[in-house]
UniProtKB/TrEMBL annotation:
Transmembrane intervals: 23-51
InterPro entries assigned: UstE-like
Keywords: Membrane, Transmembrane, Transmembrane helix
The protein, known as: Steroid 5-alpha reductase family enzyme
Signal peptide range: none
Length: 98
Protein backbone atom coordinates (compact mmCIF):
# COMPACT_ATOMS: atom_id res chain seq x y z
CA UNK A 1 0.00 0.00 0.00
CA UNK A 2 1.09 3.59 -0.53
CA UNK A 3 1.23 4.29 3.19
CA UNK A 4 3.64 1.46 4.07
CA UNK A 5 7.42 1.71 4.40
CA UNK A 6 9.92 -1.01 3.53
CA UNK A 7 11.93 -2.41 6.45
CA UNK A 8 13.03 -5.76 5.04
CA UNK A 9 16.26 -6.88 3.43
CA UNK A 10 18.83 -4.13 2.99
CA UNK A 11 16.22 -1.50 3.88
CA UNK A 12 16.31 -2.82 7.43
CA UNK A 13 19.80 -1.30 7.81
CA UNK A 14 19.68 1.76 5.53
CA UNK A 15 16.79 3.86 4.24
CA UNK A 16 18.61 4.27 0.91
CA UNK A 17 20.81 1.21 0.28
CA UNK A 18 20.54 1.74 -3.48
CA UNK A 19 22.26 5.14 -3.14
CA UNK A 20 24.89 3.66 -0.80
CA UNK A 21 25.82 0.91 -3.27
CA UNK A 22 25.83 3.38 -6.17
CA UNK A 23 28.35 5.42 -4.17
CA UNK A 24 30.39 2.23 -3.52
CA UNK A 25 30.49 1.72 -7.30
CA UNK A 26 32.00 5.21 -7.67
CA UNK A 27 34.54 4.41 -4.94
CA UNK A 28 35.68 1.39 -6.95
CA UNK A 29 36.85 3.62 -9.79
CA UNK A 30 39.40 5.15 -7.44
CA UNK A 31 40.57 1.67 -6.42
CA UNK A 32 40.69 0.41 -10.02
CA UNK A 33 42.55 3.40 -11.44
CA UNK A 34 45.81 2.36 -13.05
CA UNK A 35 47.67 5.04 -11.12
CA UNK A 36 45.35 6.28 -8.37
CA UNK A 37 45.86 9.91 -7.51
CA UNK A 38 44.11 12.33 -5.21
CA UNK A 39 42.33 13.69 -8.27
CA UNK A 40 40.57 10.35 -8.78
CA UNK A 41 38.96 10.79 -5.35
CA UNK A 42 36.89 13.69 -6.69
CA UNK A 43 34.27 11.46 -8.33
CA UNK A 44 33.33 9.48 -5.19
CA UNK A 45 33.43 12.62 -3.03
CA UNK A 46 31.23 14.53 -5.46
CA UNK A 47 28.79 11.63 -5.78
CA UNK A 48 28.54 11.31 -1.99
CA UNK A 49 27.75 15.01 -1.67
CA UNK A 50 25.17 14.90 -4.49
CA UNK A 51 23.44 11.75 -3.22
CA UNK A 52 23.35 12.73 0.45
CA UNK A 53 22.85 16.49 0.27
CA UNK A 54 21.42 17.50 -3.13
CA UNK A 55 19.69 15.26 -5.64
CA UNK A 56 19.32 11.86 -3.97
CA UNK A 57 18.16 11.59 -0.38
CA UNK A 58 16.70 15.07 0.34
CA UNK A 59 14.00 15.15 -2.38
CA UNK A 60 13.10 11.49 -1.85
CA UNK A 61 12.79 11.89 1.92
CA UNK A 62 10.59 14.99 1.43
CA UNK A 63 8.34 12.96 -0.84
CA UNK A 64 8.24 10.02 1.57
CA UNK A 65 7.32 12.29 4.50
CA UNK A 66 4.45 13.77 2.47
CA UNK A 67 3.17 10.40 1.25
CA UNK A 68 3.96 8.08 4.22
CA UNK A 69 3.75 10.56 7.11
CA UNK A 70 4.38 9.32 10.65
CA UNK A 71 5.37 5.80 9.53
CA UNK A 72 8.29 7.24 7.59
CA UNK A 73 9.18 9.68 10.39
CA UNK A 74 9.38 6.67 12.77
CA UNK A 75 11.58 4.86 10.23
CA UNK A 76 13.89 7.90 10.14
CA UNK A 77 14.35 7.61 13.90
CA UNK A 78 15.26 3.90 13.67
CA UNK A 79 17.27 3.46 10.47
CA UNK A 80 20.36 5.27 9.12
CA UNK A 81 19.78 7.30 5.97
CA UNK A 82 22.87 6.36 3.95
CA UNK A 83 25.45 4.13 5.61
CA UNK A 84 24.05 0.71 6.58
CA UNK A 85 24.21 0.09 10.30
CA UNK A 86 22.41 -1.25 13.34
CA UNK A 87 18.89 -0.03 13.98
CA UNK A 88 18.16 2.34 16.84
CA UNK A 89 15.27 2.00 19.26
CA UNK A 90 12.31 4.11 18.22
CA UNK A 91 12.01 6.99 20.66
CA UNK A 92 8.83 8.98 20.22
CA UNK A 93 8.96 12.77 20.38
CA UNK A 94 7.40 12.51 23.86
CA UNK A 95 10.52 10.61 24.96
CA UNK A 96 8.86 7.20 25.29
CA UNK A 97 10.45 4.04 23.93
CA UNK A 98 8.29 2.11 21.53
Amino acid sequence: AKTEVCETGLWRYSRHPNYFFEWMFWCCWFLLAASPSWLSLLAPLLMYWLLVHVSGIPPLEDHMLRSRGEKFRALQRRVNAFFPGPRRQDIHPEGELK
